[in-house]
Amino acid sequence: MAKTPLIGMTMEELQDVCLQLSMPKFTAKQMAQWIYGKHVHAIDEMTNLSKGNREKLDSLFCVGCSAPLETSRSVDGTIKYLFPTESGKFVETVYIPDGDRATLCVSCQVGCKMNCLFCQTGKQGWQGDLTVGDILNQIYTVDQLMAQEGGTPLSNIVYMGQGEPLDNIDNVLKSAEILTADYGWAWSPRRITISTVGLKKNMRRLLDECECHIAVSLHSPIHEQRLQLMPAEKQFPIADVVAMLKEYDWSHQRRITFEYTMFGGANDSMLHAKELRRLLGGMDCRVNLIRWHQVPDVPLKEVQLSAMERFRDYLNSHGITTTIRASRGQDIWAACGLLSTKKQIENQTI
User: Fold this and answer.
1) Is 119 buried (19+), middle (13-18) or exposed (0-12) by CB count in 10 A?
2) Are 180 and 192 in contact (CB under 8 A)?
3) Which of 31, 220, 264, 297 could bridge 301 with an S-S bond, Cβ 3.0-4.6 Å?
4) Alpha carbons 55 and 3: distance in angstroms, whole number
5) Could you give the CA distance from residue 213 to residue 166 in angstroms, rounded to a whole number?
6) What pLDDT, on a 0 to 100 scale, did the predictor assign at position 328?
7) 48 with 32: CB under 8 angstroms?
8) Which segments of 49-114 does DSSP mark as H helices, in order?
């Protein structure tokens, strides 16, 4: 019988484990310290638990951390990892060092249902949601690898890897809870950003139940064009999403960012800049301009830097803070929109 992973459990769930195994309730706090504080790999390493309790725990449970199966290193220092999931599938995770900071781009689904035209992940379809343990294992393991290799420790987490976070809302919110809880990683929610294409049905939950930063994938302010790029626009028009977001107060430390991937000759004109200004006008937000990288069989073109700079300068001059995001890891297919585990899943089924 397969053992149940402990990683991904909240304090209440760890207490339930103690109850199930007739262990003292305070043992849950000890387990949380070993898992989330000391990042142990095996229950036998939890040395302040009695031998008898460790044996009882080990009979049904495991820590549940898994090492990456493959590692790809970019010339710019970016590292892409291939992780196994509890369901026997695979996801990719990207580590992005930047001076004394390092960001981990984590995945939350195997593939994606959103099927955005420009995204490689959507081309593989959707094979399932990641568990809370699957999500946290990416952070758990990479943090340890950096400690072993002398790399820059993680300073930020972005839910911008494979999948749509709000399509796996329960597990994403639970993983964020553990990352920010005193018994977990005890991170500030300001170190975490959760992205979405704009699933309005779960956006309010994200706003009300979590204090992490939010990034909305926008990509065009024009309904008809965004619909061609992003099928989610049909059910969740960006105008409705922005209208809902404007109801919230963004003047405090929490940040709302709009991600805008640029395509040459498609959404990079001054018309688009003016429409974006009109859409976001009066809102305390930021815009990230992202260079798109060619995906096979997609009829879009890469944008010129001069067009991105002109777009950025226009928005900045009209009070919308706008930056051009540095592109990282293109040579190992780790840049925005390039993640996919379709090949591994196809090989697995042969």
Assistant:
1) buried
2) yes
3) 264
4) 13
5) 14
6) 78
7) no
8) 51-60
Contact (Cβ atoms closer than 8 angstroms) between residue 275 and residue 236: no
C-alpha distances (whole Å) from 188 to each of 31, 176, 177, 185, 214 are 22, 10, 11, 9, 14
Mean pLDDT, 10 residues at a time, the chain of 350 residues: 92 96 95 95 95 94 95 93 94 94 96 91 89 97 93 96 96 98 96 95 92 96 96 96 90 89 96 98 94 86 95 97 87 68 60
- Taking the C-alpha atoms of residue 235 and residue 226, their distance in angstroms, rounded to an integer, is 12
Q: Are strands 79-84 and 321-324 parallel, antiparallel or unpaired?
A: unpaired
What's the Rg (C-alpha) of the chain?
21
Amino acid at 350: I
102 Cβ neighbours under 8 A, 6+ residues apart: 95, 96, 146, 151, 152, 153, 154, 155, 156
Q: Which DSSP string corresponds to 239-308? A: HHHHHHHTTS--SSS--EEEEEEEBTTTS-SHHHHHHHHHHHTT---EEEEEE----TT----BPPHHHH
**What's the pLDDT score for residue 19?**
95
| Residues forming beta bridges with residue 323, ordered by sequence position | 288
End-to-end CA distance of the chain: 26
Give which of 182, 193, 209 is closest to 104, Cα–Cα: 193
Per-residue tokens: 14: 């760890």
Q: Mind telling me the catalytic residues?
A: 92, 336
> How many residues are present in the chain?
350
Torsion on CA atoms 129, 339, 307, 276, rounded to nearest 10: 0
